[in-house]
Amino acid sequence: AMRTAVQEGRAGSIDEALVSAGEAALVEACKKCSVKEALGAGFDLSEIKQLDKVRGLRAAGVPCADARRVGYDSKQIKLAGYSVAHAKAAGFSCAAVKEGGYVKGLKAGGFSCEDAKEAGYVRGLKLAGFRCDEARAAGYVDGLKECGYSAREARECGYTCGQLRLGGYSCGEAKAAGCT
Questions:
Q1: What is the DSSP secondary-structure string of the chain?
Q2: pTM for the whole thing?
Q3: Span 21-43, mean pLDDT?
Q4: Do 127 and 149 contact (CB within 8 A), yes or no?
Q5: Is residue 138 packed enough to be buried (19+ CB in 10 Å), middle (13-18) or exposed (0-12)?
Q6: Is-contact 6 23, C-beta < 8 A?
Q7: Which of 44-48, 61-65, 134-138, 151-155 has the lowest mean pLDDT?
Q8: How far apart are CA 36 and CA 61, in angstroms?
Q9: What's the chain's Rg over C-alpha atoms?
């Protein structure tokens, strides 16, 4: 109701200072409310973005693509509760998803292991849902241990002993995995 009054005041012949004061009071009140309440009060998504509202976007039913359109970045999208699949469907690249701090669910969200390698994912690749043989097919060698695979897993999917050493495994780990 207050938002409508401000809009009608701008369109009518009400004193501009009075309308501006009403709008300022509305913005202050909106800073304390939820995204859902702000939307209900008539604020559009770009105005909500200007108020730095992030938490509650997804819960308020805001599509991830709309949030991206008004300038929410991948870190904010993650904080708002959107999944990797939501982010990908909204047009975020694998590199942007990485910048947002996503790891878990990368594969389930629709990205390939090759996408992950190109985006610079190393740490947590296994947690992201990729098997060791997928990492091997994507060309992972350096940092393989950081990906989350054991030396034994790496050896069983075809990595050589030399690749295990390049991948960050110790001599003892490589030996325990069957290297001589």
A1: -HHHHHHHHHHTTS-HHHHHHHHHHHHHHHHTS-HHHHHHTT--HHHHHHTT--TTTTTTT--HHHHHHTT--HHHHHHTT--HHHHHHTT--HHHHHHTT--TTTTTTT--HHHHHHHT--TTTTTTT--HHHHHHTT--TTHHHHT--HHHHHHTT--HHHHHHTT--HHHHHHTT--
A2: 0.80
A3: 75
A4: no
A5: middle
A6: yes
A7: 44-48
A8: 8
A9: 25
Phi, psi of 164 (to 5 degrees): -60, -45
When pLDDT is cut at 50, 70 and 90, the band that residue 28 belongs to is low
Determine the Cα–Cα distance for residues 48 and 70; give it in Å rounded to an integer: 10
Residue 101: Cβ within 10 Å count? 10
Q: What is the average pLDDT across 46-66?
A: 91
Angstrom distances, CA of residue 71 to CA of 36, 42, 53, 88, 99: 18, 19, 12, 15, 15
